[in-house]
Amino acid sequence: MSEILCQWLNQDLKLSRTVSPKAFAKAFSSGYLIGEVLHKFELQDDFSEFSESRISTARLNNFSRLEPTLHLLGVQFDQNVAHSIITEKPGAATKLLYQLYIALQKKKKSERTAVEMQSMQPLGCFRLQNMKSEAFREKKSIIPCQINLNLMWVTDMFQEKYTQMKEKLAQMHFENLERFQKLKEEQRYFSMEKQRLSRRRQNEIMAKIQAAIIQIPKPTSNRTLKALEAQKMLKKKKEAEDVANEIKKFEALIKKDLQAKESASKTSLDTADHITTDLLNTYSDDDYIKKIQKRLEEDAFAREQREKRRRRLLMDQLIAHEAQEEAYREEQLIHRLMRQSQQERRIAVQLMHVRHEKEVLWQNRIFREKQYEERRLKDFQDALDREAALAKQAKIDFEEQILREKEFHAQIAMERAKASYKKHYEICAEILDQILDLSTKVADYRMLTNNLIPHKLMHDWKELFFNGKPIYEQASTKHLPARHPAGQLVELEKRDLLDDNDYEEYKVHPDMK
C-alpha cells in the first residue's frame, strides 16, 4: 500500500519532495506534505502559512490548519492521530494518507468545491468540528515539546557514541591480544628453529666423532690367561731381584763402615799405649789419669757422633729410596692414566663442547627473558598511553559537545521567547485593534445619529468583539462567487454568528416574541 501511495504522490500529484516507502512516516511527520496534497485539490487556501520546519510549534500550526479540512472530507483525525504522525509511529501516516486518498477520489468524482461541501454539512456537525478544533489547539501538552525531542536526540547520540567507543576499545583489546599471540607464536617458532639447529649441529658432531673412531683390533689368541700370569710372575721376580740387589748393596756399605771403625779403634789403641808410656815417663800419675779420662771421654763423644752420622746417613738413604719408589709408582700411575683410548678423548672433547653449548643456551635464555620483560613493559606503557590519549580525546569531545548543546539550547530558548513574545504581541495588537474599531464605530454612530446606540446593535457589536470578529464590513455578501475570497468568508462567519446569537436569545426568551 505504501508503494501505491508513493506512486500516487510522486507521479500523479508531483509533490515538491519525493516520498519513498522507507521514509514515509518521516516525510509526513511535519504535516507540510499533507497540506500540499490538499492544496493540489484546492482545499487548503492557507497553505502559504504552512512551515516545513520540524520544530513542535511549526508541526502544531500545520496540523491545526489541517484538522478542519480533514474533517470536511470525512477523514478521521484527532489528537491521538496527530500525536502518532508527529512521533513517526509506524503505519499512522500510511493509514491517514489512504483515507485521504479515498476521500479525495470521491470528491474528484462528485466535482464539488470546498464551499459546497462545507455548506452541505449540518450546522451541528460544523459546531462540533469547531469545538474539536479549539480543543485541539488548547491541548498542546500531548504533542512533545521540541526541547524534549532535542534532549532525546542528544541522549541517543551520546548513547551511540558510547557504544562506538566501547566497540572501539573492545577492538583495540582484541588487536592487542592478537598481537601478543602473534609475538608468542614467533618466539615459539624461533625457539623451535634454534633447537632444531642445535640438534642438527649435535648430530653432525656425533657423526664426525663416529666417523673418527678407530676400531681397536681384538687381542691375539696367544695372549691367554697363562701368558698374563707368566708375565706377572716375571715382573715379580724382577722386582725381587732388584730388592735383593739393593739389600746386598746396603749390607756391603754397612760392612765397610764396620771395618773402618775397627781400624780406627786399633790405631787409637796403639796411639794410646804410646802416649801412656810417654806420659808415664814425663808426668806424674795424677796427670796421666786425667789425660786418660779426657781421652776416653773424647773417644766416647766421637763414637757417639759417628753413630749419629751413620744413622742419619741410613735414614737419608731410606728416605731417598722411598722417594724413588714413590716417584716410580707415580710415573707408573701417570703412564697408566695417560694410556686412555681415543674414544675417551673424543668423549671428553664432546663433553667440553656440550658444556660450552649449555653455557651459551643459558646466556641466550637470560638475554631473551630480559627482552621479553622489556617488551612487556613497553607494551603495557603503550597501552596506558593509548588509553590516556583516548580518554583525553573523549573528554575534549564531550566538552565540545556540551558547549554546542548549550549554545543550541540557548538558541532554542531565544527562539521560543521570540515566538512567545510575537504571539503575545499579535494577540495584544489584535485586541487593541478590535477595541479601537469598537470605539470608532461607537463614535461614528454617535456623530452621525447624535443619539444613543440601540441595545440590539450594541449587543451585536459586543458579540463580534468577544468572538474576535471585525466590526467593520470586510466585503459585500450580495453576489457570492463560486470561490469566496477571505473577506466574504469573514462576513459569512459574522452573519452566522449573529444569527446563532439571535436564535439563542429567541430560545432563552420565547415570551418576548
Helix and strand arrangement:
Blueprint: H1 2-13, H2 24-27, H3 32-40, H4 56-73, H5 79-86, H6 92-110, H7 114-120, H8 123-138, H9 146-212, H10 225-282, H11 285-338, H12 342-449, H13 455-466, H14 486-508
Helix pairs in contact: 3-4, 4-8, 9-12, 10-11
Enumerate how many helices there are, as a single number: 14
CATH classification, class level of the domain at 2-144? Mainly Alpha
Shape designation: rod-shaped
Order of helices and strands: HHHHHHHHHHHHHH
Largest sheet: none
Examine the secondary-structure arrangement and name the CATH architecture of the domain at 2-144: Orthogonal Bundle
Measured as a percent range, the helix fraction is over 70%
Briefly note the structural class of the backbone: mainly alpha
In the CATH scheme, what's the topology name of the domain at 2-144?
Actin-binding Protein, T-fimbrin, domain 1
Organism: Spermophilus dauricus
InterPro entries: CH_2, CH_dom, CH_dom_sf, SPEF2_D5, Sperm_flagellar-bone_growth
Domain Calponin-homology (CH): 1-105
GO cellular component, one term: manchette
